[in-house]
Amino acid sequence: MRDTQSILGINFDVVNEKEALEKLIGFINEDSKLKKVYTPNPEIVMLAQDDKDLYRILEEADLVLADGIGVIIASKIKGLKLKDRVTGVDTMDKLLGYCGQYSKSIFIFGGKPGIAKIACGNIEKKYKGIKIAGYNHGYIKDKNEEDALIDKINHTKPDVLFICLGAPRQEKWIDKNKDRLNCSIAMGVGGSVDVYAGVVKRAPVVFQNLGLEWFYRLVKEPWRFKRMLILPKFLIKFIVNK
């Protein structure tokens, strides 16, 4: 039985980083259909309020992790059970460590041309023993290219498929192709491919631990200001929501 907590109708799994990894390892070792894993933040939760398709996709997920600190703040305000922020990039990192230790395979789909290749090269150096099943940029133009990509993924049969298209595109891509993919896990991890490629640097650890990565990014990329306004809107909507 999943232990979940609803935040504006989105059911987040009540897990910490260790428990999330245990669930993912279980998915890899199960002989069953594809498991869908998403890591929504307040922006995605708000998008899902008006996007019925996205709402349904998150509802049908096998694991939903609370990526944004705003989700945890909302939970604490009303005394709910979500207490731990479990980011997509940190969860991916721990899962890559497991894959390296047990010679599991990964496929990375997303990013600009060349970025996924660099990311996979860095991952292969960092996590000895990991198997790189393949990679592909995220600029798929039409159905023919998408079909070719699906064939490429299925030919290599990766244990974990990381989709780095940004939300909600990655969630909708997973949902659209869930019955065609031959892998154990399909996990949306947004810009993580840029982090592993070295194109984007994460906030210093002190900012991460304080849940202030959003503030660090705002200082570095002030053009994000309008997007950041979604957090107070999210909290107000959650507080007044019955």
Write up what this structure looks like.
This protein has two domains: 1-18 and 32-86 and 206-242, no CATH class; 102-200, Rossmann fold, CATH 3.40.50. The mean pLDDT is 92. It contains 13 helices and eight strands. With 242 residues, it is α/β, with parallel strands linked by helices. The radius of gyration is 17 Å and the shape is globular. Helix 4 (69-77) runs parallel beside helix 13 (230-240). The strands form two sheets. Strands 4-3-8-7-5-6 form a six-stranded parallel beta sheet, sandwiched between helices.
Can you give me a brief rundown of this structure?
The protein is an alpha/beta fold.
Describe the secondary structure blueprint for this structure:
Layout: E1 4-7, E2 10-13, H1 17-29, E3 35-38, H2 42-50, H3 52-59, E4 63-64, H4 69-77, H5 88-101, E5 105-110, H6 115-126, E6 131-136, H7 143-156, E7 160-164, H8 169-177, E8 185-188, H9 192-197, H10 205-209, H11 213-220, H12 225-228, H13 230-240
Parallel strand pairs: 3-4, 3-8, 5-6, 5-7, 7-8
Antiparallel strand pairs: 1-2
Helix pairs in contact: 1-5, 2-3, 4-13
Entry keywords:
two-stranded antiparallel ribbon; Rossmann fold; 6-stranded parallel sheet; 13 helices
